[in-house]
């Protein structure tokens, strides 16, 4: 399929028609730029003026779609106009062709046309004056500067401003796009953080409730049922308190509520006591010292989730929790008896391991979880130098 040639812009059609009609009006009333008696006039009579006028008007149709071609055709038309009695409208349209060639033409044309017209203006002023020693000879260069160099310089200035405005617009769009990406990433990160916090705070209590309620329903023993119901009530109350605290923080948008203190490793004893109440045999060995707050929170949540998983999945036996501060990092290890059960004692979604891995990744540490012989081991290494992240 053949490509159609580009059509002239509607404004260029109007400019060409206005120039042609204006030139015809000037010609009809006898407004020429020079008398027939001048020595430069080679074609006497008024009819030859119309040829360069028509050619230059036609070049105006190319001022946007083929600006360089329009200028190249317009130069011979202007030369032809100078050897006739001339038309002022032809001269004005030629200046517009120079302007359009710089403004709409390729970058090479925009650079070369002002240089060429500037050199021609200087040469046209110096050479005739050097030959004739007549100060009026300098006017030739002035005329060429007005006809050629001035519109070229104007076109270059307008083009530079246009390019600068386009570059500023693109930068603004890029900035807006980056801001939107940052906002999206921030929302996604905050949602993931809230999901981790909600899971870690509530999963432990709900797992204990599920396990003890199953025991209360399956065993026909009043004492066992009463003990299970006591554990269920204790965990439900604690879970509700955690939920109220989180919901209160999320609903408070005025900043009046003081943020609740994040759990620290000093609370591990209380966490282990709760796990023992839920039926786990836990031993705790800690040697951590002073740690950055993000590292403490991550370590606490890892231990909390590991105890929850042990409550849901492990066989009877001892669960060990060990924390050690060495070589600029905190190592966390939680092991529990492991048997490949067909199903856990309480339902789970697997989000706990994902959350632990995310917390460790945010701090630039390493994480591993899986069977280790007859035990299930969760091991994490948290660098202390990466304590600036919010986990």
Task: Identify the notable features of this structure and list them briefly.
391 residues, alpha+beta, Heat Shock Protein 90, 2 domains, 5-stranded mixed beta sheet, 10 helices
Can you give me a brief rundown of this structure?
With 391 residues, the protein is α+β, with helices and mostly antiparallel strands. The protein contains ten helices and five strands; from the N terminus they run H-H-H-H-H-H-H-H-E-H-E-E-H-E-E.
Task: Tell me about this structure.
- The protein has 391 residues and is of the alpha+beta class.
- It has 2 domains: 10-173, no CATH class; 263-391, Heat Shock Protein 90.
- The chain is built from 10 helices and 5 strands, in the order ααααααααβαββαββ.
- The protein has a 5-stranded mixed β-sheet with strand order 1-2-3-5-4, covered by helices on one side.
- A hairpin with a 2-residue loop joins β2 and β3.
- The chain is rod-shaped and about 130 Å long.
- The two termini are 61 Å apart.
- Residues 386-391 have low confidence and may be disordered.
